[in-house]
Amino acid sequence: MAHDNYFSDPMQTWDARFGGPDFLFGTAPNAYLASHRALIAAGKSVLAVADGEGRNSVWLAQQGLLVDAFDISPVGVAKADELARHAGVSVNLHVNDCDSWDWQPEAYDTVVAIFIQFAGPEMRRRLFARMVATLKPGGYLIVQGYTPKQLDYKTGGPGLLDHLYTGDMMREAFAALEFIELCEYDGVLDEGTQHVGPSALLGMVARKPAA
Questions:
Q1: Which residues pair with 182 in a beta bridge?
Q2: CATH number for position 106
Q3: Phi, psi of 144, rounded to the nearest 5 degrees
Q4: What is the DSSP letter of 145?
Q5: What's the predicted TM-score (pTM) here?
Q6: Average pLDDT score over residue span 15-40
Q7: What burial class does residue 156 get, using C-beta atoms within 10 Å of its C-beta: 0-12 exposed, 13-18 middle, 19+ buried?
Q8: How far is CA 91 from CA 4, 44, 69, 132, in A?
Q9: pLDDT tens-place string over residues 101-149
Q10: In this structure, is residue 59 part of a structural domain?
Q11: What whole-number distance in Å separates Cα of residue 130 and Cα of residue 108?
């Protein structure tokens, strides 16, 4: 059975998950994203997709980028706003899901999608296509996710095979882009309380061909 969304009521579920005083996935940026800092130039525009409590969007703003970010959870977005204010940066935050976000064509220099694996196959197809379309020519897409081997580790992620990523899936979904890096690897995560320990990961950086 294909699941289009990990939860039957995703807003309510994520509001409950983000409702505690701590930051569920921590406040530091995702390590894979941070390792590609050299691709990110100050003054450029970036979209952080489904960024939860704001750890990645706030870090991007700290690098001098113009950051838009959205998440389905009003509670998560409120904590992201708190995190941004504490860091002294500005992030243009919105409460939206991946279908209701106003996907503008060729609007961003970079799109960042970190562990957005609540999306089942149908939602994922829509989302991936929209991420490509909203990139400017020459823009970069940075993605991190879990691979099927994560079902053995059980250290994070949805636990549903059809929500996990493979290299072949990425090559097919992003065939219109030029791949800078596409790797499946084992690593150790330390992201809050939810992504901790040995993990089966996929990292992808791809570039939209210049016009």
A1: 204
A2: 3.40.50.150
A3: -130, 135
A4: E
A5: 0.90
A6: 78
A7: buried
A8: 29, 13, 7, 22
A9: 999 999 999 999 999 988 889 999 999 999 999 999 999 999 999 999 9
A10: yes
A11: 12
Q: With the C-alpha atoms ordered 140, 82, 91, 73, is the resulting torsion angle positive or negative?
A: positive
Residue 58 corresponds to which tokens in the numbers above?
A: 């706030």
Cα–Cα nearest to 175, from 103, 125, 110, 136: 125
Residue 23 within any structural domain of the chain: no
Give the count of alpha carbons within 13 A of 198, CB side only: 5
Q: Hey, what are 78's tokens?
A: 């409120």
H or E element that contains 185 = strand 178-191
Domain extent for 167: 10-17+29-207
Q: How many residues does the chain have?
A: 211
Q: Which residues, other chains included, contact 35 with Cβ-Cβ below 8 Å and sequence gap of 6+?
A: none
24: how many CB neighbours lie within 10 A of its CB?
19
The total domain count for the chain is 1
Q: Is residue 2 part of a domain?
A: no
In the structure encoding, which two tokens stand for residue 63, read together? 């690098």
Whether residue 24 is contained in a domain is answered as no
